[in-house]
């Protein structure tokens, strides 16, 4: 890179930091935040990868992460501004920059995103941005392994319920986003703190299994999710049984379209769910015996 290019890059970084300073100084001004967010979207991703990284580092130093989180809260009721703020954050995921993910997490982006979705549950733009932000900051990070404390904090903020509602929204209309949701749920379900919150996923997961198996979004992943939900949680196993998982899984064993790998997952899930059926049977027998004893 020659001196002219370096000077141009420095000017671009300085201009972007000035935009961030203006957004900080005019946080409650919807027009400033909207225009500033669009400016960041447009110019932060211009140029080569290294150039973008250097601009991003300058913006982080100027407080990019803090102003974006603050702007989400300041304009929670305005969908147009909120959408720009969340889109700006989700666009930054292309960098997969650990420093930025750290700063956004510490600034409270997960709580802000969940609050935004709760405020506008039917807005597709906000939902899409929120989904990719949660995946990037909580799960897809560096080594592509979930960070336990982030999973715990996101669960406390309502991320489990959010991802289930997103899957419910996308499962009939968008294959790619359905796969993202299922992958996120698998990552979350591996943690006890999330597993106990995912009873809300059981009916939906069984519904996906009931649908045309050949056309279901990534059947192997859905079966993995069923196995994880039923593991170590009697509450989830009971919910899966109640939703009809045993009948659906039993039918799958006779389906020639199911791969050997998937058949093994079906058998594992059935083994766990039948154990739950036995628990329910014993509990019911005890209850009936107690009622009979009282009647005598």
Would you spell out the secondary-structure blueprint of this structure?
Elements: H1 3-25, H2 30-44, H3 49-61, H4 64-74, H5 79-91, H6 98-107, H7 109-119, H8 124-139, H9 148-157, H10 159-170, H11 175-189, H12 192-195, H13 202-210, H14 219-230, H15 234-242, H16 245-252, H17 260-295
Helix pairs in contact: 1-2, 1-3, 2-5, 4-5, 4-7, 5-8, 7-8, 8-11, 10-11, 11-14, 13-14, 14-17, 15-17, 16-17
Write down the overall geometry.
elongated
Can you count the helices?
A: 17
Low-confidence region ranges: none
| Structural class by sheet pairing and helices | mainly alpha
- Computed Rg: 24 Å
Number of strands: 0
What does this entry look like structurally?
The chain has 296 residues and is mainly α. It has a domain at 8-157. Helices cover 77% and strands 0% of the residues. It has 17 helices and no strands. It has helices at residues 3-25, 30-44, 49-61, 64-74, 79-91, 98-107, 109-119, 124-139, 148-157, 159-170, 175-189, 192-195, 202-210, 219-230, 234-242, 245-252, 260-295. The longest helix is centred in the last third of the chain and has 36 residues, at 260-295. The mean pLDDT is 83.
């Amino acid at each position: 890179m020659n001196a002219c290019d370096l000077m141009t890059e420095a000017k671009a970084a300085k201009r972007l930091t000035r935009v961030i300073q203006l957004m900080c100084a005019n946080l409650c001004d919807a027009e400033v935040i909207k225009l500033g967010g669009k400016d960041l979207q447009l110019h932060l991703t211009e140029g080569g990868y290294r150039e973008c990284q250097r601009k991003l580092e300058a913006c982080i130093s100027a407080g990019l992460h803090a102003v974006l989180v603050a702007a989400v809260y300041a304009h929670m009721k305005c969908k147009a501004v909120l959408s720009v703020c969340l889109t700006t954050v989700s666009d930054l995921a292309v960098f997969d920059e650990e420093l930025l993910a750290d700063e956004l997490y510490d600034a409270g982006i997960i709580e802000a995103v969940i609050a935004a979705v709760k405020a506008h549950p039917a807005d597709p733009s906000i939902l899409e941005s929120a989904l990719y932000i949660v995946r990037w900051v909580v799960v897809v990070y560096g080594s592509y392994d979930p960070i336990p404390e982030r999973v715990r904090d996101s669960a406390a903020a309502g991320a489990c319920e959010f991802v289930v509602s997103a899957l419910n929204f996308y499962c009939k209309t968008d294959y790619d986003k359905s796969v993202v949701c299922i992958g996120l749920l698998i990552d979350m379900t591996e943690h006890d703190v999330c597993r106990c919150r995912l009873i809300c996923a059981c009916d939906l997961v069984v519904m996906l299994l009931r649908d045309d198996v050949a056309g279901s979004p990534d059947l192997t992943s859905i079966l993995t999710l069923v196995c994880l939900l039923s593991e170590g949680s009697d509450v989830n196993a009971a919910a899966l049984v109640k939703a009809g998982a045993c009948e659906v899984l039993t039918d799958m064993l006779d389906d020639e379209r199911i791969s050997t790998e998937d058949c093994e997952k079906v058998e594992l899930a059935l083994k766990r769910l039948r154990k739950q059926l036995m628990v329910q049977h014993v509990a019911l027998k005890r209850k009936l015996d107690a009622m009979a004893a009282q009647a005598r």
